[in-house]
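Table S5 (text form). Sequence records supplied for joint modeling of the two-component complex.
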Amino acid sequence: DTGVSQDPRHKITKRGQNVTFRCDPISEHNRLYWYRQTLGQGPEFLTYFQNEAQLEKSRLLSDRFSAERPKGSFSTLEIQRTEQGDSAMYLCASSADNEQFFGPGTRLTVL
Amino acid sequence: QKEVEQNSGPLSVPEGAIASLNCTYSDRGSQSFFWYRQYSGKSPELIMSIYSNGDKEDGRFTAQLNKASQYVSLLIRDSQPSDSATYLCAVTSNRKLIWGLGTSLAVNP
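The corresponding structure-token record, covering 220 residues in total, follows.
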């Protein structure tokens, strides 16, 4: 399978815990995006990498969120001190040009 | 605030009919336009991209773009029950994708 992969697919955690998600993009794609989506909404932009450089981060994103793409390949998204409002689907997408292709997502539930 | 607007629906069409989905956007500088299909509980799947005015056809799907009117549409011919999903319109603005809330389509057998 040469598509975007994400791990885990589901995560249930207790409020206050830290969680980390992983995204493996399509191998020849140099751009990687993280989004968050809640029911009835479109994807909400979180952050964007070109190769290993984080070029943009949403101003809506609190300091509890951090993302890395250390070698320009896979990326991780960490949420510290999770809150119930963080419950959502976290989506990763990659692109070589304008078209973005999404992974299956990680569904986070914060109890 | 750059915006993309879609009718939320639900849009209901009988099997075999043409489904027409519409999207308007506010950023006149937008250059790239996309339609994604999203099944319940799944991630968005790219089905069409369009960059210039006019029509672009791919199988049963036709995307139409009118930059002067800031309008992009998606036509689905010979609609099938498997087309029942939410269709998201996305438009580039300052190197980011701006998303509509999606239109829910139900194709009735």
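Note: The first strand of chain B starts at residue 4 and ends at 6.
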